[in-house]
C-alpha cells in the first residue's frame, strides 16, 4: 500500500519560517553595523573625509547580480543593497547628495532615493554646475548630474588636480523599465586606490565641432557635448571603454576636421550590466 504524500506546511508554519528569516536578516544587519563601528575605529574615517569605495561597490553589485535568482525582482535587491551600502558609508563618514534637478526633479529624486535611501541628506540644485561646486567646497559630499545631456560644461571643474572626479555611473544595472532609470554620474573625491577604471571619462575641448564630427565619434564612445565659446567649438565629456582609447578618439576628431585643444582625465566608473527584457544578464 502506497504511503500518502506528506501534507503541505500550514500558513502558520510558513509565516514562522518568514519571521525567522526576517529576524536573521535584522541580526545580520546589526552585526554588519558592529563591524563598521570597529572599522571606523581602525581607519578613523570620520577624520579623513570620504568613505566611498567605487571599486568595492562595483564588485559587490556584480556578485549580487550573478547569484540572484527567484521571484524577487532584481531591482528590489539592487536598491536594498545600494541603501545598505550608502547608509553604512554615511555612518562611517557623513555626507550629503547634491543633485542637479534641472532636467527632471522627480526622476532625479527617484535616483537619489533608490541608490541612497532616506538617511543620507538630499540637497537639490537647479544646475549641474551648482551641484559640482557644492561638492568641490565640501569635505566628502557627492553630486549626481545627468550622464547624457547638459546645458553647461560642468566637467571642466573636474580637470584640476585635487578636484572631485566622476566615480560612478548609475543605474549600475540597466533595463528599459528600471524604476530609477535616469542615467547619472556620481562625483566626489576618493583615493585613487578606490577607483574603478573600466570606463574612463575625459574632458576634451575642440574647435571645428559640427554634425559630421559628432557622427564620426558616435560609434567610438558615449559623448556629452555643449558649446564652448572660449574656443569657438565644443566642450566634450567622453566616456572611453576598453574597446577603444582616448588616442583613437583624438585621431578620429582630427580626421573628421576638428582641432583638439585640450584633453584631461576627469574620472572613471565601472562597466554597467544590461538586463534584456527576458531577464537574462549581460
Automatic annotation (TrEMBL):
Residues 5-96 form the Chorismate mutase domain. It is an enzyme of class 5 (isomerase). Signal peptide: none annotated. GO terms for molecular function: chorismate mutase activity. Transmembrane segments: none annotated. InterPro entries: Chorismate_II_sf, CM_dom_sf, CM_II_prokaryot. This is chorismate mutase.
